[in-house]
Amino acid sequence: MIRTRENPLALRAGALSVLVHGLLLTLLVVSFSWHSVVQPLQVAQVELWDSLPTPDQPPPELPKPLPKVEPQPAPKPEPPPEPKAEIQVKIKPPVETPKKVEKKPKEIPKPKAEDKGQDEIKRLQQLLAEDDKRLEHEAQQKDAQQLTEARNAAEARKAAEALNASSGVVNEYKAKIQAKIKRYVNRQVCGNGKPILEFAISLMPTGEISGTPRVTRSSGLPACDMAVEYAIQKAQPLPLPPQPELFAQFRDLTLQFRPNEE
Questions:
Q1: CATH number of 120-262
Q2: Between 113-182 and 222-234, two packed helices, what is the crossing angle to 10 degrees?
Q3: CB-based contact 197:226 (threshold 8 Å)
Q4: Which of 68, 190, 229, 234 has the fewest CB atoms in 10 Å of its CB?
Q5: Confidence check: pLDDT of 200 > 90
Q6: Could you give phi then psi for residue 66, rounded to 5 degrees?
């Protein structure tokens, strides 16, 4: 109940609120009745699953029908074996060995006169060919011998020329060795005469003397002999030819000295 002493504005607000609620209720009823008439109710069916289905799962295979078993026919009885025919052994008649036919030796035809002449000509031609080969072989041997002799002569000539050349070189260097030694000889101890003395020496490739010089011919003056030996030791190294092949002729030398001669 509304009290008389309340504000008239509150009465108006209450009336307005009642009116608005009435309108809303009317709209709800009308809307519900319209939906129920125009659109019928739809019922949805829901299936419940124990587990989620796998995607693209092939349908289960149906069991194959069993093959029909046909009854097999009963085996036919085998026919009894036929009796084997007896083997008849035929006796072959004896084979007669053929008789050997004796062959007569062929008669050698006698040579005719024309055949003899041809054989003689062939024999002569063969002899002539053999003679030609022999003469040709002898000529080749002679030419080879002459060529060998010419080569030997040329080699001997070359060797002689080389020997003469080497002899000249050997004599030249022997003179050089004597001249070098003579420069160191003290002539005063050799007197006023013309003493002659010889020494044997052994040289090395360097020109040095191997061992001690040996007196092979004394001058009769011991002082002169000692002076020449001293000069030989002083003149080292002695001159040698540049050709190594000539050193063999200088390995052992016998030198003659005349101290007082120019």
A1: 3.30.1150.10
A2: 110
A3: no
A4: 68
A5: yes
A6: -70, 140
Sheet of strand 252-257: strand arrangement: 214-217, 197-202, 252-257
- Which residues lie below 8 Å from residue 177, measured CB to CB, with a gap of 6+? 235, 238, 239, 253, 255
Among the listed residues 153, 249, 148, 241, the one whose alpha carbon sits nearest the alpha carbon of residue 202: 249
Tens of pLDDT, residues 218-228: 888 899 999 99
What is the predicted pLDDT for the residue at 198? 92
Task: Mention every residue, 6+ apart, whose C-beta is less than 8 A from residue 253.
Answer: 174, 177, 200, 201, 202, 203
CB atoms within 10 A of CB 13: 11
Higher pLDDT, 262 or 143: 143
Provide the whole-model pTM: 0.39
Pull the structure tokens for residue 53: 């289905």
* Rg of the Cα atoms in the chain: 78
Tokens of 92: 């072959």
- pLDDT tens readout for residues 181-199: 988 988 888 888 888 889 9
46 or 18: which carries more pLDDT confidence? 18
Q: Residue 129 corresponds to which amino acid?
A: A
Q: Are strands 252-257 and 197-202 parallel, antiparallel or unpaired?
A: antiparallel
